[in-house]
Design goal:
By secondary structure, the protein is mostly helical. 80% of the residues lie in helices and 0% in strands. The two termini are 32 Å apart.
Length: 366
Amino acid sequence: MAAYFAANAINAFMPLWFADRGLSAASIGQVLGIAALLRVLAGPGWGTVADRIGRRRPVLTAAGATAATAALLYVPSSGFLPLLLVAALQGVAASAINPLADSLALALGKEGRLDYGPVRSAGSAAYMLATAAAGQVLTAAGSWLVPWLLAVSYGVTGALAPFLPDAATPPATPRAWAGLALFRLPGFRLTVAATALIQGAHAAYYGFITLFWRAQGYSDRTIGLLIAEGIVIEILLFARGRHLVTRLGPAGLTACAAGASLLRWTVTAAAPPLPVLIAVQTLHAASFAMQHLSAMLMLTRVVPPERAATGQALHSALGYGAPTGLMMLLAGWLYAHGGGGLAFLVMAAVGGSALLLVRPLARAIR
């Protein structure tokens, strides 16, 4: 988990490497956008393969090795089309890792062999530390190092996969469109919808918060500390929030996440003074982490064990990937035409609308 999240952190520096290879901003956007789309499309296929064989470790090993190989292929490549093909290969391979790792951790948690929260907190901690470390290293050495760091991170992910404990999951019976059949389950549909609204509402934050805060006069150092604060609070909830999660349950967690989304993005849109921003950044533990934990609980309850990897991959693609990509496009248009205030107010409305799903979600798990 930690190695994969470190790779995610390093991936954020790929635009610098692409720019140094001569790609324009528009071309970089096209490469990243197409790769992201392919990740969404490929993820459920990896989940189906894992369910068919009843084992996640071989698939994680293959995905990590392929993603590491793709990272190394960046080094001799140049020009738009070769770089697009390499980015597509890496995106398809990497799309397997997070949903399958989550699925395995949840299955082991269901067997009483580990606690999902601390495992997930290690991923968030690795992301934060890798972002800081990569920034320092690349400042000193240059962007040429990015593909090599990616290859190491993905390579470690694949190399460690065979040593993971495996869950006692029976192979799934081959069946056409088995993944889509999960949408017949009300709990699964509602979980994907709630995640899409709440996590999708983070798009303006991920894409434009640095620009918005810089325009308000905050230094890059202050901005970095504000973002880091949110991640630290997230880590604390994942690591130490087990009793709170048990007490609230999936519906309560989603209610808190949707309410926090409504409050957080509304206050952010108002461009408040720094002390208020520091306070509102603590809501990241609710707007992001609580909904993630709600979804993980729901998936373990409503998805049959033999379809767990497929369910996790579909949730990742349709709850995170596609909505965030679409909302990022919307947030960019809103930011360009109405400024950050309008963009974050729309995000508040989108995330807050998930409150309408709380009561149906509670009924779905009775």
